[in-house]
Amino acid sequence: MSPPDAQQVPPYVYWTRRRPHVYEALPPPLKWDASFWFYDGDVTLVVQGLAFRLHTTMLANWSEVFESWFIGPCATIPHPHDLGSFDGWPLVALRAVDTAHDLREALLLMYGIMRIESVTKYSVAAALHRVALAYRMPTIVDAVHKLLDHAFPATIHEWDNRPADRVSFDLGKAQAIEAYNIRESLWEEFTESVELPEPVGGPFEDREGAEVGDGLRAVPGARENSALGNP
Where in the numbering of this chain does the BTB domain appear (predicted)? Predict the structure, then answer.
């Protein structure tokens, strides 16, 4: 069902308002997103001037953050995300750094319109990764990591055996910095999940600050992780 046209109401109340405001119509300059407007939705998410009318149970089922905002007797929408209410339901602003594109891609997955296995574009995988990390969606985070494993092979064997339908960098060089940042985050999560070995005994054992090379000194208490290399 298509969203109704926004009606004219008094000047828009800025999002920094601390007292909840009750809106009888969608306040300008907000506009309904044409892709996600459900007549039986019970929450409106706002990002980049677009309003998405959605279901709290669906959002909470995927996101630990949304669950803490919408579900249960202790559910609280924190300031400055709480814009008040519209049509009797919460009107909620997402973070200023979020984009409508990222939210839309995440909703396609959450509502079962898109399957994670069908994602072949890096721009889509990156969008899912950003939303999933920001709003604590562990299922999507794990799925995207598996999806990106083939895009960032760790060994020569994995490189030589990459599947033909792996995620492609659809925006070319424009995605270089983003790809590097996501690769870094994947590496950090990997190293945090792996218990690194203690330093191997030898001439430097228990010698804090011992010289280990030309001008280099061992860091007290440091673990030996040079074998892991750099991502």
Answer: 41-111
Which tens digit of pLDDT belongs to each residue from 138-193?
999 998 888 777 766 667 877 677 666 666 665 556 555 666 566 666 555 544 54
Side-chain-facing half-sphere of 94: CA atoms under 13 Å: 25
Let me know: does 74 contact 88? Beta carbons within 8 Å: no
Contact assessment for residue 23 and residue 84, using Cβ atoms and an 8 Å cutoff: yes
pLDDT tens-place string over residues 207-225: 444 444 444 444 443 333 3
Which of 11-20, 113-122, 190-199, 210-219 has maximum average pLDDT? 113-122
pTM exceeds 0.85, yes or no: no
Antiparallel, parallel or unpaired: β 43-47 and 82-86? unpaired
Long-range contact set of residues 160-164: C-beta below 8 Å, sequence gap at least 24: none
The answer to whether the beta carbons of residues 7 and 25 sit under 8 Å apart is: yes
Query: CA–CA separation, 212 vs 227, rounded Å?
Result: 16
Q: What would the DSSP string read from start to end of the chain? A: -PPPPPPP-SSPPPTT--S-EEESSPPTT-EEEEEEE-TT--EEEEETTEEEEE-HHHHHHH-HHHHHHHSSTT----TTTEEEEETTEEEEE--TT--HHHHHHHHHHHTTSS-GGG--BHHHHHHHHHHHHHTT-HHHHHHHHHHHTTTS-SSHHHHHT--TTS-B-TTGGGGHHHHHHHHHHHHHHHHHHS-PPPPPPSTTTT-TT-EEETTEEPPTT----GGG---
